[in-house]
Every structure is written in structure tokens, then in C-alpha cells.
Request: fold
Amino acid sequence: MKRWTYAAITIVIVVAAAVGFWTWKAKQTRKLIVFHAGSLTKVVEDLGAVLSEEYGIRVVNEPSGSVDAVRKVTDLGRPCDVLMVADYRLVRDMMFNGGYANWVLVLASNEMVVAYTDKSPYAEEINSENWLEILLRDKVRVGFANPNRDPCGYRALMVLALASIHYGTEEPLRMLEDHASITYTNNGTSVLIDATELQPDSAKVFVRDKSVDLVLLLETGVLDYAFEYRNVAQAKGLKFVELPDEVNLANPDMDDLYSKVAVEIVGAGGSTQTLSGSSIAYGVTVPNCAVHQNDAVRFVELLLSDGGRQILTEDGFRPMETPFVIGASPQWLEELIEG
Reply:
């Protein structure tokens, strides 16, 4: 074979390789930006792996507290393609009126637990019956997320308020006296906690921006116990105490009881927002600022599929038997749900 023939073949191979590389690179530049609750990190990563494999979509996930995730859009004007929050009401209450989103899909639940490690004092003693008494002991350090940034934070406050009602004692709320303002209403049968001017750490209570930030403090022994979502405690290999249904915010049949407590937080634009206790329900939306609408639809489609429900279950969530939409549901979403 002549020298020029070898050269021609070499050129063809190089060109083919270059075309293949740039085709692959072009596929990988199909970015889908997802703002989401920190507790959903593993879910988003697992969904992203599927989308990358099947469609060449690269999911760029940005975890934070859900309140922060919403305010990135409403207050900072940052665009994202998918928004996933630990409390669907944040989308409804903070995004609908401003035209930032028109709907939110309610798709999964979770529950509150008290997480700890082998190094925590009374680790061998704590259980579902004595958990509150142990948290109230002297020198036991307790942590929760910032309620103005993370729903796990205001849910931790709700757990303490519900414990006060359930056990008939004000002691749980005394933990918060140095941090938030507490008001008893309806002849003492309901509790309102004002966390809008939340105070920093005390000797007893530690506050961090989001619930997953507390994990390192537990692992290093800075904290003894922390209020966490069950799936976070499981994913991080922490021990945890299951709480009674009357306080764990996991049972929709107890929403009337849960609603006896409420927390005031800093909402969109710095306004005060009051959230009543309610069973935990996660939500997802495609904001009106979404740039990659079609790929966002694929994300939601995968989330609603059997594979998506399996991912939610494996990552510690409870998929809703029948997901439902709050707001003006787009036609494509109605068809997905009906399907």
C-alpha cells in the first residue's frame, strides 16, 4: 500500500475520532440546573446518572435549604430548570403570586427523627419513650437547622411544640427561650414560634444553615443529638430515634393536630411568612425562568416513573401513592400523572 494511502486512512480515523468526541461533548453540554433541598441530594444525583446515560443530559445540582432554594429565584433572580423543595408550600406561598411558578407537584413524604452517634451521651439509653427527657438533661447539646433557610429547621421547632402539647409540659420549648419568641394561643392549646429574628448558638442549642450541616458536628462530637429527616440519618449512617406519630410530622391523618403549632419565618423579599404544622410533603416544579424546558420535562417524567419512585424509596423517602398538583397544571404534567 502506498504511503499516501496510509496517510489518507490516518486522516479519516482522526477526523472520525474528532467528530465522535465533539458529538459526545455537545451532548454532555446539555445542562439541566436543579436547585434542591439538601435532603434530596442523593435522589438528584441518582436521577442525573440515568438522564446522563439515556439522554446525554448533565444535571447540575445545587443543594441548599429549601427556603434558600426558592429565594435564589425570587430574590436573587437566578434561573434554574427544576426546583425541588422539602415543603411544597414554599413554592405555592412564595412563588405563585410573583409569577415565578404556576404549579407544584407533591410527590413524596418523610419524617422527623432525633439523630445521634455512639459517642452521644446516653446513646445506650435513649429510645422512643424517653427521648425528650434525655434531650432536656443538663449538658446535652442539641442541634437543628435554621428555620429561615431550611424546612427541617422550622419542622424541628414544630416537633418541640408538638411534644409540649403531647406530653403536657412546657419544658421542650424552654430549649428555645434564648433563640425564638414563643406565644401560646387558643387558651394554651396552640403554639406560635416567631423565628424571624433567630438567635445564634447557646450552650444548649446549636443552629446551622441546613440540616445536613449538623451531621459533621454529630460525627465529631460537637453535638450530641440533632433533629434530622429520617432519610438523611439513614444515608449518613447515623443512629436515630423514631418519634411518636403525634410529633414526627409523618402521618397525614394527624394534620389537625399538627396544625396546632406554627412557625413564623423570613419569606420572599424579607417578608414574614407563617407556616402551620402539617405532615411532611416534598414538591417539585419547573419555574417560569427555566431555560431547558424540554429536559426539565424529562426530569419530571423520570421522577414519576417506576424507576424514579424506586430511587425515592431506596433513598429513604415515601413516594405518594397518587402524586397531585397544586396550581395550574400544564397539559404534559396531567398526561404524565394520568399515565
